[in-house]
Design a protein that fits this description.
By secondary structure, the protein is an all-alpha fold. It has 17 helices and no strands. Helix 11 crosses helix 16 and helix 11 packs antiparallel against helix 17.
């Protein structure tokens, strides 16, 4: 018994040093997040290539199908998002996972542009609702004081799971003659397994229950989305998110292309940046989670915005010998990864804090739709301006982050938080 107590204390001490929460009674949620990350990682590199080869469509056509599906998801997300408040986050998560499983299982039969749009729209809409419901579900699983640690743990698990999934995907694609079909069907199975894990995950004893009918929901929150869009503090946070999202997406949309075409750079430099970002993202999670417990979320987001500005300035200074390139790239990557982690750890708990329980599903859905809208706009800002001036997109990101810092100061005065 004494040895068990000592091992438990050592485990708790290590967990505290890492900045992770206790997973006792919540291991199935951890398993669901990991399985989802592995499945997504398997398919990510082949999203366009699969339909190009299997449906014999051009890359431009597949790109257009993805864009149409994204726009459809924007339109469908909010009407469906109210289901989170009616049926609860857990039920919504299970349904979205099953919907994705069915859609991925139908991929082999999607051989025309309209059928590709159909299955991708199901996936994109389910994905929008999934992330909104998942953020609400974390608030049912973890106490408010522990939520920053949960978001850090989940981000850490997703990074590791994606790395493993990408590796597994390339192995399957290389070993099997129909490797990409195996990946697609394997991803469908992963959604079903994750759905079962989520269905049986325990929530905290004090977690609220959810209404069982539209009438009950309306009795609790008669204004629905009207109240969400009249909440000026929440809308201010949405504006701040919208300004920062292009920076979050810069590592996938802008930086690799910027580095590949930089004087003295090339594909090797872009690959090095992506690798550094992934490794540093995993390493930086624990200290960011501990920092989130000592300062307010708005302050941490300001730090993130400042670090993004520093990273973009450093990326703009790249040049010279190969040693100079690698040195500046390493410094820029550290700043970027730290910003990404701080932003991720701070954003989730702050969003939960600003979302009242009775309407949390709608609040989370609006947030996710805003994210998706920013994903539509960001390629135009980041890639579209690169051809006219190499430093223009980096300068634009610095301006957006600077405005976000000022608005966060205003938000900090409008909300009451520990640490202010």
């Amino acid at each position: 018994m004494k040895k068990v107590q000592i091992d438990s204390k050592q485990s708790s001490s290590l967990r505290d040093r890492l900045g992770f929460p206790s997973i006792v009674g919540r291991r199935r949620l951890v398993a669901a997040v990991t399985i989802d990350a592995i499945g997504s990682g398997m398919f990510m590199p082949f999203a366009v290539l699969y339909f190009v080869r299997h449906a014999h469509l051009s890359a431009a056509t597949v790109g257009a199908c993805l864009s149409i599906a994204a726009v459809c998801a924007l339109g469908l997300g909010m009407p469906i998002g109210g289901a989170i408040d009616r049926f609860g986050p857990r039920a919504t998560l299970v349904v979205t996972n099953v919907a994705c499983a069915v859609a991925f299982a139908a991929f082999p039969w999607a051989v025309s542009s309209w059928s590709v749009v159909a299955v991708l729209t199901v996936v994109a809409t389910a994905d929008t609702i999934y992330w909104a419901a998942h953020a609400a579900f974390v608030s049912l699983v973890a106490e408010e004081a522990e939520q920053a640690r949960w978001f850090a743990l989940e981000r850490w698990l997703r990074l590791i799971g994606n790395v493993f999934g990408v590796t597994l995907g390339f192995v399957l694609a290389s070993v099997f003659h129909s490797g990409m079909t195996v990946i697609v069907l394997g991803n469908a199975v992963s959604y079903l397994v994750a759905a079962q894990m989520l269905r049986s995950t325990h929530t905290r004893p004090s977690a609220p229950t959810f209404a069982s009918s539209d009438a009950d929901v309306q009795a609790e929150s008669p204004q629905g989305y009207k109240r969400v869009f009249s909440d000026s503090t929440f809308l201010l946070f949405m504006l701040i998110q919208f300004l920062l999202i292009p920076s979050v997406l810069a590592m996938t949309l802008l930086i690799p292309l910027y580095l590949a075409t930089a004087p003295g750079g090339g594909a090797w430099l872009a690959g090095l940046a992506l690798t550094l970002n992934m490794v540093l993202g995993i390493v930086c999670q624990p200290p960011a989670a501990r920092l989130a417990e000592r300062i307010s979320a708005t302050r941490l987001l300001q730090i993130a915005a400042g670090l993004w500005i520093a990273s973009f300035v450093l990326f703009g200074l790249l040049g010279g010998s190969r040693l100079a390139l690698v040195t500046v790239l390493a410094l820029a990557s550290v700043a970027y990864a730290a910003a990404e982690v701080c932003g991720g750890v701070a954003g989730g708990p702050l969003l939960t804090r600003l979302s009242p329980e009775g309407l949390r599903g709608r609040y989370m859905t609006v947030n996710q739709v805003a994210w998706n809208a920013a994903k539509v706009v960001s390629p135009l800002l980041l890639v579209g301006t690169l051809s006219s001036n190499r430093l223009l997109p980096l300068g634009s990101l610095c301006v957006l982050c600077g405005v976000a810092v000022l608005l966060l100061q205003h938000l900090n005065h409008r909300i009451s938080e520990p640490g202010n």
